Amino acid sequence: MSVLRTRSAVSPLRRRFTDLPLRLPTVDAVVAAERPEEPLHCLRPAVVAETARTFLGAFPGDVMYAVKCNPDPAMLRALADGGVTQFDCASLPELRLVRSMFPDAGLHFMHPVKARGAIREAWAALGVRTFVLDSAEELAKLRTEIGATGVPGQPDLVVRLALPKGDARLDLSGKFGAAPDLAAALLRAARPLARKLGVSFHVGSQCLDPLAWRDALALAGTVIRAAGVPVEIVDVGGGFPVAYPDQEPPPLGAFLAEIEAGFEALDLPDAELWAEPGRALVAGGASVVVQVQHRRDGALFINDGVYGSLSDAGALAFRYPVRCIRPGVATGTGVATGTGVVAGTGVAADVTPAHDGPELPFSFFGPTCDSADVMQGPFLLPADIAEGDWIEIGQLGAYGACLRTAFNGFDQARIVEVGDRPMLETAGYQPIVTQRAA
Description:
The chain is an alpha/beta fold. The strands form 3 sheets. Strands 1, 2, 12, 13, 14, 15, 18, 19, 20 and 21 form a 10-stranded mixed beta sheet that branches. The longest helix has 17 residues, at about 210-225. The protein has helices spanning about 25-35, 45-60, 75-80, 90-100, 115-125, 135-150, 180-190, 210-225, 250-265, 280, 310-315, and strands at about 20-25, 40-45, 60-65, 65, 85-90, 105-110, 130-135, 155-160, 195-200, 235, 270-275, 285-295, 300, 320-325, 330, 340, 345-350, 360-365, 375-380, 390-395, 415. The chain has 2 domains: about 20-40 and about 285-415, Beta Barrel (Lyase, Ornithine Decarboxylase, Chain A, domain 1); about 45-280, Alanine racemase (TIM Barrel), CATH 3.20.20. α2 (about 45-60) packs across α3. It starts with about 20 loop residues before the first strand and ends in a 21-residue tail after the last strand.
C-alpha cells in the first residue's frame, strides 16, 4: 500500500459529472434572490450548444473540443448536445472524465509529452487511438508502451510542427513543436508504426489574423513534401478568437476560408482536416459575479482575482466585459424590463430600467494578500459603484473557473445555470441579439 497522499485541485469545476447546478432564468434574478458573498459562476449551456452547432456546421472537417479550456461536466454535456463527439485531451484525468461521460466519444491524446503509464492506460483501458508527438524520444516511448499493453493495433500518430512566433494574444511557439527538418524526419520514422499519419500545429491562442492559418498550412505542406511519405491527417489546432471589449475578431467565415484554401493547396485529396477549438466554443458560455468589498479611488477590491477565475486578467491583461448589478436596478445596456420570479425560490426579482449614468475606468484587486493579485483593466463601471454592489464579468467560459486555486483559502464558489445571452456576441459563432433574455 502506498504511503503517499494525493491532493486534488480545489476548483469548483472538479466535480462529478452527475452533479447538476441549480438552473435559474437570469443572472439578475440569482443575485436578487441569493445576494452572494462568494464568486458565483453562471453557466450558459444553451449558448455553448448553439455555438458548437454553428462551428461544426461551418468547419469543413472534423472538430474536437480542447477539454483543457473548460472541463466542467455541464459544459461538456452542452457541447455534446451541440454535436461534439470528439475531444482533444491533454491528460489522463481529462481522458477519464470524457470517457466516463461519453463511452462512445472519440478521444485524442494531444499532449506531445506524456507519462508512460498514461500512454498505457489511454491505449489499453480508455480506447485512445490518436497520439501527438514532437520528438524521437516520444515516438520511441509510444512504440514501447503501446506494445507493452499487449492490446493489438496501430495508433494514429500526429507530428506537431513548431511555428515561428506570431501575433496571437497568447504565443504558443516556445514549448511544443518540432522544427521543419525534425518534423519531416519524424513523419518518416512514424510512418511504419502508424495506422494514420498526421501533421498538427497551433497558431497561438486568441489569434485575430486569418492568414496565420494559411501560412501555417503552407509550412506544413513544405514539411510533408520533404518527408516524402503519405499523410492522412492535417490538424490546424485551435486559437480561433472571440470578442472582448478591446478585441473584435473578423467573422468566423474569414478564418475558415483561409483554412480551406490552404488545405486545398496541399493537394492531399485523401487527407482528413481536423481542428481543436476551445475558447471559440465556450468563452461566451460562462460569466462570474463578484462583489465589491472596498473602493479606493479608481480601484475596486473584489472577492475573486488572479488566483481564482480571473487569471488572464492579471499577467495577460485581458479586458473582460463588465456590468454592475444592484438588486432592483439592472445596470448596463440592453436589459429588458419586467418582473419575474426566481425558479424554485418563490422570490420576486424586479428588473427595472437600466441606469445609464456616467462611467469611469476601474482596476480590480483580488481577495488574496498578494500584491500581484491585481487586474489593471481598465473596466468601465458606474461612477458611483460602491461596496456591496455586484459586478458580472463575462467571456469567462474559457480558462476561467478551471484555473482556480486554493491560495489564501479563497477557494469557494457557487455554480448556477442561467438562460441569459452572453455579455458579448462574436460574429459567426452566435447570433447577434439586442436584448438579454427576460
